[in-house]
Amino acid sequence: MARKTQSRLELRKQAEAAEAMDAEIDIEVDDAGDEDAPKKKKKAVKKKTATRAKRLKTKAVVRKRLVWGVFSSSMKEEARFPYAEREAAEQRAEALTQKNKRTYFVQPIKEPIPDAPPAAAAE
User: Residue 82 forms beta bridges with which residues?
Assistant: First the structure.
């Protein structure tokens, strides 16, 4: 015959009752016990360790500029043009296509902006 499973609520009530009985027995023993008898030591409560906050490294923001690059079909860069001169880049790609039997195309390239030269060197 199968046993009936006990509910968690019932098990919790039984555990709390057992703890209460143990506490009452400890109190009675402490009150009625001799002064010379060794007393039970209470368990030391461990302190919870504080969680450390993770330090996130901030990445340096690198400024970039967009330029147009003329590439061959094998991804070899043939020329670069400033962003404002897209028509010139397309004309260069068309001229290279007419001259050679390969296909050339224009693609944007993001390149980092170099730092400004020192003021003393500019003068």
Answer: 67
This prediction has a pTM of 0.47
Contact assessment for residue 43 and residue 51, using Cβ atoms and an 8 Å cutoff:
no
Return the pLDDT at 120. Answer: 58
Which pLDDT score is estimated for 85? 95
Burial environment of residue 93 by CB neighbours within 10 A (0 to 12, 13 to 18, 19 or more): buried
User: Rounded CA gap, 101 and 90, in Å?
Assistant: 17
Q: Which region holds residue 75: left if phi is over 0, alpha if psi is between -120 and 50, else beta?
A: left
Q: Cα separation of 102 and 120, whole Å?
A: 48
Distance between CA atoms of residues 30 and 40, nearest Å: 9
Structural domain of residue 79, as residue ranges? Answer: 64-112
Does residue 89 belong to any structural domain of this protein? yes
